[in-house]
Amino acid sequence: MKFTKMHGCGNDYIYIDCFKETVKDEKQAAIFLSDRHFGVGGDGIILIKKGKTADFEMVMYNADGSRAEMCGNAIRCVAKYVFDNGYTDKTSFSVESMGAVKYIDVNVENGVVVSAKVDMGAPVLKGEDIPVNIHKDKVVCEKIAVGGREFDMTCVSMGNPHAVMFIDESPKDFDLNYYGALFEKNTDVFPNRVNAEFAKVTDKNNIEMRVYERGTGETLACGTGACATAVAAMLNGLVDHDVTIHLLGGDLKIYWSGKEKDSVIMTGPAAYVFTGEINKEF
What we know:
Layout (H helix, E strand, L loop, with lengths): L1 E7 L2 E7 L8 H9 L9 E7 L5 E7 L4 E2 L3 H13 L7 E6 L2 E10 L2 E8 L22 E5 L2 E9 L3 E6 L9 H9 L10 E9 L2 E8 L3 E3 L3 H13 L6 E6 L2 E6 L9 E5 L1 E7 L5
Parallel strand pairs: 2-3, 4-6, 11-12, 13-15
Antiparallel strand pairs: 1-2, 1-18, 3-4, 4-5, 6-7, 7-8, 8-17, 9-10, 10-11, 12-13, 13-14, 15-16, 16-17
């Protein structure tokens, strides 16, 4: 089976072109291929297919074999792959994932995509729709005690659930693996588990952030997490409408008008790592 390793700001996935390849056991493929010691290594796998309600479909699995609804970094890589490989000659097209359709504009230089702008849709702010088991319509700057520490938490869904915590120390000095795992697995509060972001606002247009992703652990970047963090910062009056999120793997630019029905717009890079073939069927 042939595959392509790609990343967006270091958020790396194994991409399988299902126009050419067949994967029968997608969960086991994700678990095996994502293993960084015995497989290819990545944050999960992405299956690229012909769309049902969009131009293309992205089927995403986390490294533990669980399905994921959306990944902002992965969808930019899908956009690069389908354009660079001649599946479309349009610079504006759509990609669906678990029924949600996103609209993408690609930036092409010398015939290849170098970055993409994605309409990530409007943020979901209603607690029960995220979902989060806190009996408030919106969960903004809500006190929560986890692992012996109290955090101010704001919850947002960008197609998948996020809990954003603004902290005083640099995220680089924060014990992410300890607190991130506690947040992710706290199903009393987050019935579908949660992606946990720990962020520090440096000024009105810049945020430093690290992320602990549901089903994977820490990743170098998270597109939906960057969107959720920007939205959370705006809801708390901490930043302007144009924000750069500085992640361990690179920067993502996020724009949101602040109006609940308006889409969040994410812009960032997409890059190849390598291509290969594995002598195993799934």
